[in-house]
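Let's practice the habit of predicting before peeking. Look at the sequence and jot down your guess about where helices and strands might fall. Then scroll down.
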Amino acid sequence: MISTRVMKFEALMKLVDNGELEEAREIAQSYVEAQPRNFVGYLCLAYVAFAGDKDKVAAEAYVEETLRHDPRCEEAMRLGVMIWTGSDNAAKEKYYIEQGMRYASREAFYPYRMGILLEAQSLTEAAPYFEKAAGLDARNADYVGKYSNVMYQLGKKKVARDYMQRALGLDPNHTENVRNFAQWSFEDGHFKMARDLSERALQTKHDAESARLVRQAAPTSNWLVAMVLRIGLLFIAPFKGRKTSAKMMLGFVLGLWILCIPLFFISNLVGIIGVTVVLALVVVAGLISNGIRAKRQLGVEAPKTPVKQVAKPVIQAPPAKKVTETKPPKPITREQNREVNPPLAKKATQPTKINPKIFIVPAIILAVIGFGLMEDNSADDYDSSSYNDMSGAEEADYFFTIRNSLENEEDIAQDDIIDDSFYPVFEKLMSQPKLKEQFSSAYTTGEYLDDGELQYLKIEDYSGDLLFLTEFKDYKLHGIYGTGWDDTEAGKARYTELLQAFEEELGISDGVLEEAHMKLIQASFVSNDNNHAVALTMVGEDFQDTFTDMMNDDAVKKQFIASTNFVFIDDSDYQYLKMTDNNDGEPLIAQFEDKNLVYMYGADWSEDAEDQARYEEILSDLDWEDSL
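Done guessing? Here is the structure:
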């Protein structure tokens, strides 16, 4: 429930935003006179001074007075940040940001603003703050996209792509994120994706930057241009900075001219022919590029001043309005004993170092030239995990369409995206609140598997835990496999088979298969299945009888089923899952070998002294490794 004090402040904000400054000022002053020790009046006066009078000094004085009466007033700290955002006094902005992170630690706004503040000095120092903001507000495309962009600039491209995919999953038409992804794709040589994303950016916002991206990527639709740029990209890869078409073509010329030097040892004529062919290829590629760009004239004027987009704060400052002369409110004596953090030290920026390693073994270059001649739609590792040009991109788009429709309570176009044979099953699954919530909060990392007839996507939650696998046929959702989704014997067996196939094809992070197998085993013993045939296929042959006897003990079985929190640790010989329930009960230890359960340890599970001693030893080792 919103407190009366906050309601008062929000009502006053509306008055100021509507230009009714005099009335707002009188109301704020009346709050102060009625309750001089209450922070609300001073907070209201601060907003009038900031948003109405554009007087930063007075506004900050009222903010300080507000915090004197209530040091935890989040609105005052946020207003303090806004007052000094973009000013030359970074120390004051930093002070209010630090107060916000201290007293409103769950608000993503403050670490995001701290990251913006540090970004100009050091991306390395700013990165943890952007990461924290993206973690606190994982559904904010601005925060997630910003962290992704910083990771890319720091050279952590895999992390950047994962977060950018998540950001585009939240908002596929976020202009800045689409632009960044388009530029990355171009610089990494994924030209088809760059063309698609730049076109999308232009549709989202028809301005000079989007037009530049389109004109940059459009010529790569020609195979010769794409080949020249890809090869040139290899030679300029060691250099930092934005990689443009001109730099790539220059890299192509200089790099291949260097490789032509050995031809002169054969004869001068052969060497001259090689150099001439390289130059001719660049000239032809340049002419083709100019021709394609000429056909793609966009007619967009560059903006007069660059517009810097920042995260939209809760408190918004309205446009400046002229106000008539009014009586000033009671002056507030500003306290000087509040220590402000020292200004941020500017780190000396070092000039970009050029990596001298620009020569590549001729054999590798010949292989790359062969790659450049391949069709533009060739698959590679990046395509398997990218958002819009990856293998399985259409399946991923349909998955997000279904997921977003569920979130927005919209009707799903059955014939277009869900197979007729699966639609009744899907409706039944979505009638279960737990499964519907799981589906609505899921996203795909782009890990894709195609067995020729059917296609599969790995679906995770925002923390990276595997939720289920989606099956597609002819680009339509055809089935879902996972714990709780298809608990038939055939469904469990298919789920296990697919997990194994994913691991062999793409590799799965440590513990995913072990956790998935454990969930399936638990689900089997939760159900009325007396056979447990599929579950026991995930248990080592030598342990199957012992495990079945354990599960015949009701107390042991109850503890086993309730232990759903997993911590995975690999000691190279065996893999272990430490399993706990939600009531801080005694943990269980599941020992795995080759993805199969080979033993279980629990407190008082066995009368064998060696078993109990081994349980204590493993638990101690796991706790120690987990603390590292």
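How did you do? Confidence is low (pLDDT under 50) at residues 300-390.
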